[in-house]
Amino acid sequence: MAKRVARAVSPRTRKAAPAPSSPQLPARRPAKPAAQARDPGPAAQTAGMQLYTPEGARKYLTAAERDTFLAVAGRTDRDIHTLCMTLAYSG
Fold first, then answer.
1. pLDDT tens digits, one per residue of 14-60
2. Contacts of 69 (CB under 8 A, 6+ apart)
3. What does the alpha-carbon distance between residue 66 and residue 84 come to, in Å, rounded to a whole number?
4. 31, 33, 34, 40 alpha-carbon torsion, rounded to 10°
């Protein structure tokens, strides 16, 4: 059996390995045609965010009410306090 002799390769003569090929992305689907406009009806007029209930009551707290709520919540357990803060700041 013949011995193999390792040849020293200079960094200058070393060829760069080919870059791995990137996977091909699937072709994009053509855009769907726009939906035709429909009459939304009376339900759409009341849908969405509203500041008042149909009876006229507020759905929000004033700054003073929020501060009082958070002060009382601060005296409760940590879990309850966290929930109250989430409700007060996010609605």
1. 565 555 565 666 666 676 666 665 655 555 555 688 889 999 999 88
2. 61, 84, 88
3. 10
4. -130
Amino acid at site 83: L
Q: Are 88 and 66 contacting, i.e. CB atoms less than 8 angstroms apart?
A: yes
Which tokens in the block code for residue 34?
A: 């726009």
Handedness of CA 75, 80, 84, 86 (dihedral sign): positive
Residue type, 75: R
Is 59 within 8 Å of 53 (Cβ atoms)?
yes
Fill in the DSSP letter of residue 12. T
Could you say which DSSP state residue 6 is in? Answer: P
For the chain, the distance separating the N- and C-terminal CA atoms, rounded to the nearest angstrom, is 82
